[in-house]
Structures are given as structure tokens and as C-alpha cells.
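Complex 335.
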Amino acid sequence: MWMVIHGLIASAIGIAVGLAINWFPESASTQAGPIDRLYDILIWVSVPVFVTVTIIVLFSVQNFRMRPGEEQLDGPPIHGNTRLEVIWTAIPAIILVVLCGYAWVVLRDIEEAQAGEMRVNVVGQQFAWTFEYPQADGEPVRSKHLYLPKDQPVRFSVRAIDVIHDFWVPAFRMKIDAVPGIETGYRITPNRLGTYPVVCAELCGLGHAVMRATTRVVEPAAFERWIAQQKAPAQASEDGEVDGKALFTDGNGAATACGACHTLADAATSSATGPDLDEVLADKDAAYIEREIVDPNAEITPGFQTGIMPPNYGDTLSSDELEALVTYLGEVAGK
Ligand code: HEC
Ligand SMILES: [Cu+2]
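Predicted structure with copper (II) ion bound:
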């Protein structure tokens, strides 16, 4: 009786607390509802299991513990109880099979192919995401942030260039590994306007923590405008010059923003993943700066490691962009 009463009270409190806590961020996809419900049902089932085990342990410690003078005694000679063992094997097995079946059904339903899906290729690499939007008329549009039109079903096709990453937008709830050599993916339908973080959920190297991007769920018309804008020629300010500062803080779609890793007062960035450029570039000339950007592993700044700064800026920056960056850094670093 003691166990049953305390077990029921503890379970009721545990379930109430478990359901009251907001485990997940605001949801922004049609997939989130069924996943959150699945999670709540797991709380309903797992709290009583945890309580049952704990109560039996506490009760046994209280009632069957060794008392002074019993050190030499052996316990009663029990050699098993077949009926009990069948019961305590069967009940957990049934609970597991039912829960797995339910989870499988939920996953199957939310991953069903939708009519008129938009495809987005997601590419993970140390330490940035690239999102590619295939276009019927030519080159895909590439972006380092994820733009999605509201209420438009999307199928992500996920790849990795170097090591295993994991593509996760917590607000969408879905998540999958990006594995070199194979293509993985999942489907979601964003259903709430807003800005949500994209996270790499697989420890992928020293820059793992900065491997973040932004998802913007926008109205379909705004999405079309954004795609059209991206198709237009590269970032240029009014006089046709490439803006070195904008490149530094925002990157160009294919090239990761330098400001994600480097401190530079003029650009108001403050990351310490890479060297403080105000400090290390104060007395350096253009040739040195250019070489360090194109071939970062040639010479490693003391106190930092090789393999963090992307080695492919020579490809992802056009020669105009590279020149603009070098000129900009030469002018402002350490000033
Ligand atoms: C993912 C993080 C990361 C990004 C993004 C990044 N860097 Fe670096 N950078 C580093 C690290 C770490 C080092 C030090 C190790 C080395 O020298 O390779 C470094 C070194 C440098 C150096 C050499 C500093 C010295 O001591 O002389 C320069 C210059 C530089 N980065 C400029 C840039 C520019 C410009 C960009 C953008 C086009 C950029 N970095 C993007 C992490 C990054
Ligand atoms: Cu990663």
C-alpha cells in the first residue's frame, strides 16, 4: 500500500512537471505538432516506469537492509520465480513495442511526400552551411542562410563535403546527419513566419560551435523577390565597387563570413575562434593578407590550429572580392 500510494503521488507530480516544462523552442513547421505530442506521451509512460523502479529500490532499502548482528546471515534461499520473470519481461517488452510502433507511425506520416515540393540542397562543411536552390533556368542559387516560403512543403537533400555534420533547425524539430559520400534528407513544411537558428548537431571539429546559420520563413512573394535578387550579379555598392566590409561581416553566399571567427573593430565583430585581426594585421602588407586568406594553412598563427579557417576562399571569392577584402583589411585592421 505504501508503495502504491507514494508511487501514484510521485507519478502525478512527475507527469505534471514534465508536461509543464517547455522542452522545445517555438515550433515553426507542420511536423512539430505530432513530434511534440509523441514527446508528451513518452513523458506519460516513462515517468511511472522511473517512479516504479525508484519506489521499489527505496522500499527494499528501508525494509530488507542488513541490520546490526546480521552480518554473517545469508538471505532466504530463493532460486527464481518463473511466473514473476515472465511478467516482468513481458510488460516492458509490450510497452517498448507499442511505443516504437507509435513513433514509427508518426515518423512515416510526417515524412510523407507532398505535392509540389520545393527542393533545397543542404551542404555541410567545416564550418558552414550552404543552401542551394536548383533553378529551372541555369545555375542554382546559393546562400549561406536558409530562406523558405511559408506553407510551402520542402524536401531537403543533405550532403557533407568533409566530415559528418548534422542539419538541425530546432523550430522544425527534424534533424539528420550529413554524411560524406551519401545523400540524406527530410521533409518539412514551415508554417510560421520568423527567424530561427540552424545548428550543426554533430561535433565536427574546432569550429563546430560557430557552424550556425539563420532560417528565415517569409511570405511566398518575398521569397520570389529574394531568389530574383540572388540571381542578380554579385554584391556591389553604388559605384560598382565590391564592398569589403560587407563581405567580411556577411560573406557572399558561398564564402563564410570572416566575422564569424575573427574580431575586427571596424566591422564590430568579436569572435575569438580565429586571431584578432586588429592585433595580427596591424603592420602587415596586402601581399601578406592575401596569402593568409587564400592559403591559411601555409603559416599558422601561434596559439591557433590548422584546419579551422576554410581553405577554399581562393575558390569561393571572386578576384574582385578578394581584392576588396584585402584592401579593406589593409585600411582598417589595427586602426
Ligand atoms: C571558421 C573560422 C574562420 C573563418 C570563417 C575565417 N577565419 Fe581567418 N583564421 C581562422 C583561424 C583559426 C586562423 C589561425 C590559424 C591559421 O593561421 O590558419 C585564421 C587566420 C587568419 C589570418 C592570419 C592571421 C595572422 O596571424 O597573420 C588572416 C589574415 C585571416 N584569418 C583572415 C580571414 C578572412 C579575411 C576571412 C574571411 C574571408 C577569414 N579569415 C575567415 C579562422 C577563420
Ligand atoms: Cu558541423
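The chain has a mean pLDDT of 89.
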